[in-house]
Write a structure and sequence with these properties.
The complex is a heterodimer of chains A (292) and B (362).
Chain A lengths: L1 H33 L2 E2 L7 E2 L3 H7 L2 H32 L4 H12 L5 H12 L5 H8 L14 H13 L1 H12 L3 H9 L4 H12 L1 H15 L4 H6 L11 H10 L4 H32 L4
Antiparallel strand pairs in A: 1-2
Helix pairs in contact in A: 1-14, 2-14, 3-4, 3-7, 3-8, 3-11, 3-13, 4-8, 8-11, 11-14, 13-14
Chain B lengths: L1 E12 L2 E12 L3 E5 L6 H9 L6 E6 L2 E2 L10 E4 L11 H11 L4 H14 L15 H13 L5 E5 L7 H17 L3 E6 L2 H7 L2 E6 L2 E6 L1 H6 L4 H6 L6 E8 L4 E6 L4 E7 L8 E5 L4 E4 L5 E11 L3 E8 L4 E7 L9 E6 L5 E4 L4 E2 L5
Helix pairs in contact in B: 2-3, 2-4
The chains are: A mainly alpha (292), B alpha+beta (362).
Amino acid sequence: MTSEREWRGLLFVAPFMLLYALILIFPLLRGLWLSLNQVDLFGDGHFVGAGNYVRLFHDPIFATALLNTFEVTLMIVPPLTAIALALALALNRASRTAALFRGIFFSSAVLSVTIVTLVWRFMLAPDAGLLGYVARIVGAEPLAFLSDEDLVLPALAITTIWWSLGFPMLLFLAGLQQIPEDMYEAAALDKAGRWATFWRITLPSLKRTLVLVVMLQTAAQLQLFGQAQLLTAGGPSGASRTAVLFLFETAFGRWELGYASAAAEVLFLIILAVTLTQYWATGRTTAAQGGR
Amino acid sequence: MASLELKDIGKSFGATAVLEAVDLSVEAREFVAFLGPSGSGKSTLLRIIAGLERADSGEVWLEGRRIDLLPPGDRGVAMVFQHYALYPHMSVRENMAFGLRNARVPKDEIERRVADAARVLEIEPLLERKPAEMSGGQRQRVAIGRALVKEPKLFLLDEPLSNLDAALRLRTRVELAQLKRRVDAAVIMVTHDQAEAMTLADRIVVMNDRRIQQVGPPMEIYSQPANLFVAQFVGSPTMTVADAELVGRGEHAALKLGDGTVIETAVRRDALPPGALRVGLRPEAVRVATAGAGAAEAKAELVERLGERTLVYARLADGEPITAEDDGDSRVAIGDAIALRIDGASAHVFDANGAAYHRSDS
């Protein structure tokens, strides 16, 4: 009776399990297997064990790409989080104007990366771009954002922040809506000024949203690809080559699928480690605060 | 000396007026209850005093200082919210200390006040807990404690007992009464529960329809209601009110009900205006009796046995509903024909505008 029931239950989840195995589990394992082989796009490869990983470890281009990725992630996530929170605070009211601005600030998030990079190429180009134009008006020399090794990552960060602002802002707005109004009234009677209210009431109440935003954005920006590929193709001289761009070039430029798979596994482990660390660190303090 | 004074307070939300021409003066150390149905404006009035709502017109004075233009934190009032509004990420101790810290009270003074309040409210073992780790009753005490440590001139309690279960509500009611004697401040409590208002308050402010209907000590509100609304809102079960006709010639008004029963009231005839009249009878003024002279005939429709007394919901011969009282061991059953003896001396009379007239000697 029981076993029959179990079988029937399995039958119900079977279609999903099949698809799940086919399009998620299988590619995952296949990737892992590929990373242990030397293989190109056209023929069968041969098993090389940890060979790809050893090679990666000694590859200065991969090291630079990883470093670039970390750098640009650090340039993006803190300001992105702060700006999204500031916008949410400013727009968390029931007026028509606030609704309009919520729409405007969210609108960049629905654009495709192609359009975003197109827009920002016009903004950033030193001779014809808006920033160059502004620089000339104030009598300064326009900065060559996309061809200067020191400026290309900040340019990439600015573009990404502009593009990614909408969703975190929406999450913060949802978080703000959850804070009961009488808490602010109690704070007003407790003589809490704006600053104290923000630091002692609003921010602690948003803690879970804050953790979520930082975790999601970190995981997303460690995989930054489209902007780098379209704006600069990783240049100048590799200064904006990110880890995923390295992966893409290796797999689809040089056809080294095994090597690229190994890089993908390394990146996967890094993202997993960073996310779990964040989760662990903040989860502990949240529990200690009695938050649920 | 008057502690709190409200002068001509008016407030509307958009096109809807919620308060009109409200005047009130509360004595120092007085416990006042705002009693009224929902939508009567009582909570809005409380929030105007607290500074959480701004009045469109009028002034609020506390101990000789005009406060209605000050921010809530500078008014010298403390409030206990209906849903407590404790800060969930702060411990009980931090919840109570938060306001004092913002007011730059010295550290040792904060500690002393928090310790005192915790002792009085018996929440000392809870000081390091978070609100999520406490029961409703405990949270309620913390909310009271948070108000207490501020040593305000005025406490505002917004439906303080409405979120507690029945047993806890009775206990907390007693505790509030004791607390009131400890604090050197006036207390205003908003409630829609007349039992709470009657047991706790020195004076009750009955509110309805944007206005104060009556202000007075609980028993005065009960025995001399200012108008039909107060008469029917206060008292359980509700006062019976029936159309009546002025008859006879005596010094006191005699009123004839629709079924012919004549009630000899103690209300002076010359005090009554011309026009339609209604007579109001509390259940205790209508006793189930043995049939005989001066008794009205009625039919019992519902019998409610409360133990120490029995309430009989009946109809007079002309179909007019009337509520009567009988002894605890009453033998009246549903459908019985019964006789009612009406104590005319404690009857109230209302004119066409709802204004009330009471016995002339009180």
